[in-house]
Amino acid sequence: MRIDVVTLFPDFMRQCAAVGVVGRAQQRELLQVQTWNPRDYATDNYRTVDGRTCGGGPGMVMLIEPLRKTLEAMREAAPKPVHLIYLSPQGARLTQGRVEALAEMPRIALLCGRYEGVDERLLAHEVDEELSIGDYVLSGGELGAAVIIDAVGRLQEGALNDAQSAEQDSFSNGLLDCPHYAKPVHDALGDVPEVLLSGDHAAIRRWRLKQSLGRTWLRRPDLLAQRALDKESRALLDEFRREHAQ
Ligand SMILES: Nc1nonc1C(=O)NCc1ccc(Cl)cc1
Fold this sequence. Notes:
It contains 10 helices and 9 strands. By secondary structure, it is α/β, with parallel strands linked by helices. The longest helix is centred in the last third of the chain and has 19 residues. The site of 4-amino-N-(4-chlorobenzyl)-1,2,5-oxadiazole-3-carboxamide has 17 residues, from strand 5.
């Protein structure tokens, strides 16, 4: 998969994509992240990429022309058609389901705005999808782009090892993750739950599922409402709720 990133901060974006699972996916050529800086496509001596807001008011807006040239160069750099995503609070909320759909695409591009915004005419003409990573205001689209690169990059076939795949599954089954423990078994902070030391893998699986269901019920009941529970999960959650009520 190829991800092109249009950003005024290419070094930052390259570093985000160079570490950990995503960095390794790039080394294994499972993923390619390419940055494009609109400043390189600004034709004036000052490499201007922003202009005064029409209608007055504070701040600047990213100009059409440098972005149009950047996008043209980006699209021409590889034959595969590009699905262009713009990151902003005005976008649809990013979900794991949408991440999984994006991860199947051969090529996506992420347009990172700065200043007060991007000229609406450029967005209307070029952008395929607008996405938000949450209801808060950041200083630019780069952190949203980094989130997408990580969430999509780790889903590329071969990017995760077995343990990481298991962890991914625990989250993407629509439930919150269960608690995790490492040695020492006994610590001033408390003990590791007995069942995890029992070697009874069926009991351990049930305990972990019960904890995930219980945590989701306590912390994110909205996620639970979206999910049909099988017979075993309903029983485990009832058990958790009875114990919690005591
Ligand atoms: N929330 C979010 N989810 O994705 N992006 C955001 C966000 O706040 N971007 C800030 C931003 C976006 C575009 C421009 Cl031009 C300037 C600032």
